[in-house]
Specification:
single chain
Length: 95
């Protein structure tokens, strides 16, 4: 019998509940950032200028290096390029 999948792929991969939730949030923010950069047709250099970071930092973002970005950093980057971020708290974290 297959184990029941949760709503958090990181939890399914064996991360603890807190770490899995943090990773889920960071991955969503990273997807929003990379999609915005791609839709805007920005080069990594142009994105770096808008985000006030280095081009290698944008490269890390575009390559999905989740371990080098905090939630705070990602929210700041989204704000710098004019993407509104809303935080909603409530409900139970999926197990």
């Amino acid at each position: 019998m297959k184990p029941k999948a949760s709503k958090n792929v990181f939890r399914d991969l064996g991360f603890g509940p807190e770490e899995a939730e943090n990773l889920r949030i960071r991955s969503g923010l990273m997807v929003a950032l990379t999609q915005h950069i791609q839709r805007a047709g920005m080069t990594q250099k142009a994105a770096a200028e808008h985000l006030a970071v280095t081009q290698p930092r944008v490269s890390d973002l575009m390559r999905g290096k989740i371990d080098v970005f905090s939630i705070d950093t990602l929210i700041t980057m989204l704000s710098r390029i004019g993407v509104k971020t809303t935080i909603r708290v409530g409900g139970k974290v999926a197990e």
